Amino acid sequence: MKIRVDRDLCRGLGNCVAIAPTVFKLDRENKAVILDAFSVEEDTLLEAAQSCPEDAIILEDDGGNQLYP
After folding, report:
1. Domain locations in the chain?
2. The CATH number of 2-68 is which of 3.90.650.10, 3.40.50.300, 3.40.50.10610, 3.30.70.20?
3. C-alpha–C-alpha distance, residues 63 and 40, integer Å
4. What is the pTM of this model?
5. 15-57, pLDDT tens digit by residue?
6. I want to staple 16 with a disulfide (CB 3.0 to 4.6 A). Which of 6, 24, 40, 54 is the partner?
């Protein structure tokens, strides 16, 4: 699974960090960045993505097909 953050949408609320702190952190601009996408199970990645009210976290399968949002 591939994961990316749309920095234009991210408001830095930190829900993703609370759910998956080994995957996400907030940078100096208070935007989510990816640390290690493979440090948690895919279910946790999905939960973190779903917790973002701006849908700034995009999940894709290995073929590039968008899984979320």
Report:
1. 2-68
2. 3.30.70.20
3. 20
4. 0.93
5. 999 999 999 999 999 999 999 999 999 999 999 999 999 999 9
6. 24
